């Protein structure tokens, strides 16, 4: 079974180390000690907790969407050139880049420092893992 140190678990699902420790204390995550005596959480219980705290396929407005991949973050760059705009978002540790029409970028009033959500629906998703 896969286990993660507290800091790894927190980084994987985008919460603080203290939140993970609180979840362990409240019984929301299974934990044990690794061979070095450090507290670790089970990957299976972490995955279940991630699913439990995730939005249920709709945004704050209550509108349901078929796209489940939503990344809310801070706009870090907007480049408008002719008919096209390129937007960069920093969503936690993830950088998301979007191309759109310059008209759409202006209508959304996108500017550096504003909050935006990228909604992604893709037919191809590449998955990588590290060798353990």
Automatic annotation (TrEMBL):
It comes from the Bacteria. Keywords: Molybdenum. GO terms for molecular function: DNA binding. InterPro entries: Mo/tungstate-bd_C_term_dom, Mop_domain, SinI_DNA-bd, Transp-assoc_OB_typ1. The keyword Thylakoid does not apply. GO terms for biological process: molybdate ion transport. The keyword Acyltransferase does not apply. It holds the Pfam family TOBE. Residues 64-129 form the Mop domain. NCBIfam families: excise. This is MerR family transcriptional regulator. It comes from Leucobacter massiliensis.
